[in-house]
Amino acid sequence: MAGEKTEKPTPQRKKKAIQEGQIPKTPDLGAWSGMLAASFLVPMALRSTMERGAELLRTATRFTEDPDPAEALELLRTAMLGAAAAVAPLALGMLVIGVAASGAQGGIHFSSKLLMPKFSRLNPLPGIKRAFGGQALWESFKITVKTAVVGWVLYAVAKDLVPTLMAAGTMPLTSIMPLVADKSVELMRYAAGAGLAMAAADYAMARRRINKQIYMTKEEVKQEHKQSEGDPHVKNAIRSRMMAMSRNRMMAEVPQADVIVVNPTHVSVALRYEPTKGAPRVVAKGVNLIALRIRETAAEHRVPMVEDVQLARTLYKAVEIGQEIPPELYVAVARVLAFIMSLRSRGSAAGLHRTPSSV
């Protein structure tokens, strides 16, 4: 069906989607990862805080016996530094987890397009569609599962904790508090593990939804290919223009050639020999119409032409324009040049000739 998005997104389309903020993400990954990290970092922070608090209380007890304003300021500074040192690992760890969770979901990108006002967002119809569409059903399902899983984890942990607390009526508070703290940490870890599993499923759904949104029609793929590779008609026109310029430069070399080796009608190869620059070089060559143009230009400028079928074919195939002839053709080309020199000495070099070997 025309206009149906059936083609996978191209790399350019994916890049554009990222620039527009269309990146599969789930906030649950960062939230549950943070809770899991907190289950390890919070006990460490509490232990550090309690140790520093105990040391501060011992110092404060000595201070009350001999009050001194300088010592009071030092005590305040020590307390503030201790609190910062105790909380710093927790704050830094949560920051790292948040950044890592965002980076794991396609990296950190800033899209200015999301900040631009769009009047289409004021249209209530898309909002109503989202409220009753598949995305709304998924969100409702996700909330239900999340509540059920957290409730089950809470029940599983409390089931073991409540009987212990009921039987601990005679236990001191210092023994009960570590037990409650351990169970609380266990609750956080179980809940975080279940939450991460749900976050992975939510991320998979978000990725599937975004990929579906950026699918392309066949026409869009063709249009993008034209934009990235260039319009074929324009490229062909440029290529034709460049070939024409190259041919014109080649034809300009024909009047300066020493001899044109021909086939006699299908192939033409122009040779120039300058002793100070090495072996003879091919300055122009062509077949069919181009070969005819070379012969016509040669006749117009009285450049001698020699009919040698095998040599003309070999030169055309083996030597590019501007290159010297290979050593295996030295003898054959030397024979042609010597023949032309003998004709020039008699004043009859112009026109089409046959070498003595080809007669």
UniProtKB/TrEMBL annotation:
Region (Disordered): 1-26
One GO term describing the cellular component: plasma membrane
Keywords in alphabetical order: Cell projection, Cilium, Flagellum, Membrane, Transmembrane, Transmembrane helix
Membrane-spanning segments: 81-104
Biased composition (Basic and acidic residues): 1-10
GO annotation (BP), single: protein secretion
Protein name: Flagellar biosynthesis protein FlhB
